[in-house]
Design goal:
This protein is mostly helical and about 160 residues long. The protein is built from 10 helices and no strands.
């Protein structure tokens, strides 16, 4: 921490230094971590990695609205940043907003057609919405890329149990 603090004192534009200070303070449970992530975003407002570090921190801190806002900022900068879509989908699931979650997972698989976890979670959204045929298709798609993916296997098992 001392070394990174000295580095950012010498060069206040040192983006990695601010992000690493945030991570180190977060790992020690210090609330000041958020200020370091925010500083990183302020010095590099067009840098998706700075926004991503802040969004992940906010998500881990249970500030889900703040995290969603940060992921939206990322997608304004780079609409093809798949992890912002995927992570937004996970947050919407946590908020029991299945249609919004599904929309984000749709977007994730359209950007990255090999995103196994996005297929699974899109299938899960379909399962929760009662569209079992679509859920099965997505679980099978996930398994076509990762045959041992346990969540997709469990999803198919749940579907088979209701047939």
């Amino acid at each position: 921490i001392n070394s990174f603090q000295k580095a950012v004192n010498l060069n206040s534009e040192l983006l990695d230094g601010w992000i690493n200070l945030g991570r180190l303070h977060e790992s020690r449970g210090h609330a000041v971590a958020g200020k370091y992530y925010e500083t990183a975003v302020q010095i590099a407002p067009e840098n998706v990695l700075a926004h991503h570090a802040k969004a992940d921190y906010l998500s881990r801190s249970d500030d889900l609205d703040g995290a969603l806002a940060s992921y939206r900022a990322i997608l304004e900068i780079n609409p093809e940043y798949v992890e912002a879509c995927f992570n937004s989908g996970l947050i919407y699931l946590d908020l029991d907003s299945i249609p919004q979650a599904r929309q984000q997972f749709d977007r994730a698989v359209s950007i990255s057609p090999l995103h196994v976890r996005a297929y699974y979670y899109r299938g899960y959204c379909s399962e929760q919405s009662g569209d079992l045929a679509q859920a099965e298709a997505d679980y099978r798609k996930a398994l076509s890329f990762a045959p041992d993916f346990p969540l997709a296997q469990q999803g198919l098992s749940r579907l088979n149990a209701v047939k």
